[in-house]
Automatic annotation (TrEMBL):
It catalyses: L-threonine + hydrogencarbonate + ATP = L-threonylcarbamoyladenylate + diphosphate + H2O. The keyword ATP-binding applies. L-threonine binds at residues 30, 62, 117, 137, 177. ATP binds at residues 53, 57, 113, 139, 147, 192, 227. This is Threonylcarbamoyl-AMP synthase. Required for the formation of a threonylcarbamoyl group on adenosine at position 37 (t(6)A37) in tRNAs that read codons beginning with adenine. The lineage of its organism: Bacteria, Pseudomonadati, Pseudomonadota, Alphaproteobacteria, Sneathiellales. GO terms for cellular component: cytoplasm. Its main location: cytoplasm. Its EC number is 2.7.7.87. Belongs to the SUA5 family. GO terms for biological process: regulation of translational fidelity; tRNA processing. It comes from Sneathiella litorea.
């Protein structure tokens, strides 16, 4: 596959590939996305094929501005305020498709709603402008695997299956966007924890409802085994057993750490390193990974969500996605 750099010629060439219906992965602030022209059924179908993703699992649509988003979905008041507060950035809003919305039905898996966001990464925004199309983009990894936060992760997972990757260096946030939908009464509902914390959402719009992951979740991508390394994962480990790699957070278990997500206990730093660390431990061929305790506050909620899925039994992986 081609590795497109950040210069104008490469950016244009990558955009031409998109307009020709091919797949190009690109850097965003959260994780690398596997981009396709969202208005092209065939291109969207090839995303599902390249990832091996169940086609009932809908994709996020990326646009360069709120004004563009309004061409595809209808905003309510709370959604307007969330977009004003957090776009461009790691927040995805699930909103009703406008009438005659040109986005492929396949991208929203037949639903009447569409998940949409304006990414907060300079290169991603330039790319969206150059493409001049909305881009459907799930994380650029084989379905069920660890999300990519470097161009090399994309190459390792999808070599031979896509036209190229637009290399913007390591992703600064490191976990996927927070997905927010709306109840029938128009109240915001947290569908997937991610790069924007619940605390930040609530300081902008007040209480946000929780959708507990009990298997009836309305966000179809939130099925159990996911983000999974080849190794088995043991959570809340305060010891390291023989043969295990130990993934630590903070100083408490640093003496037994093979990788420490943040010696200083900084959740932002830990989030940025999480998927890279899992990729690295897989490359080192560890069969088992023990993960130390991580506080369930702020970005720790998104980290623990991903780690619980990484630790889930893989027989659930069939039903999974993204
Ligand atoms: O940060 C991100 O969000 C990355 C980057 C590339 O932007 N993208 C990403 O996409 O994580 P993906 O496809 O891996 O995750 C999409 C999530 C899934 O949980 C999916 O179920 C949910 O969004 N989703 C998409 N459309 C939906 C809809 N209409 N209703 C409810 N949930 C939806
Ligand atoms: Mg994903």
């Amino acid at each position: 596959m081609r590795i497109f750099k950040t210069d104008k010629e490469d950016l244009q060439e990558a955009a031409e590939n998109i307009r020709a219906g091919r797949l190009v992965a690109f850097a965003t602030e959260t994780v690398y996305g596997l981009g396709a022209d969202a208005t092209n059924d065939h291109a969207v179908a090839s995303i599902y094929e390249a990832k091996g993703r169940p086609s009932f699992n809908p994709l996020i649509i990326h646009v360069p501005s709120l004004a563009k988003a309004k061409e595809y979905v209808t905003f309510n008041d709370v959604a307007e305020r969330l977009a004003a507060s957090f776009w461009p950035g790691a927040l995805t809003l699930v909103l009703p498709r406008v009438e005659n919305c040109p986005v492929s039905r396949l991208a929203s898996a037949g639903l009447e709603t569409l998940a949409i966001r304006v990414p907060g990464h300079k290169l991603a925004l330039e790319f969206l402008h150059a493409c001049d199309r909305p881009l459907a983009a799930p994380s650029a990894n084989p379905s069920g695997g660890i999300s990519p936060t470097k161009a090399q992760h994309v190459i390792d997972g999808l070599e031979g299956k896509i036209a190229g990757v637009l290399d913007g260096g390591p992703c600064p946030v490191g976990v996927e966007s927070t997905v927010v939908g709306f109840s029938e009464a128009g109240k915001p509902v947290l569908l997937r924890p991610g790069g924007i914390t619940r605390e930040a959402l609530e300081s902008a719009v007040g209480p946000v409802l929780t959708h507990d992951a009990d298997g009836t979740t309305p966000s179809p991508g939130m099925l159990l085994s996911h983000y999974a390394p080849n190794a088995t994962v043991r959570l809340n480990a305060t010891t390291k057993e023989p043969g295990e790699a130990y993934l630590a957070f903070g100083r408490d278990y640093d003496t037994i750490a093979d990788v420490n997500l943040s010696v200083n206990g900084d959740l932002t730093e830990a989030t940025a390193l999480l998927f890279s660390a899992l990729h690295f431990l897989d490359e080192m061929k560890f069969e088992r990974i023990a993960v130390g305790p991580i506080p369930e506050i702020g970005l720790g909620v998104a980290i623990n969500d991903r780690l619980r899925r990484a630790a889930a039994p893989k027989e659930n992986k069939e039903a999974v996605g993204t």
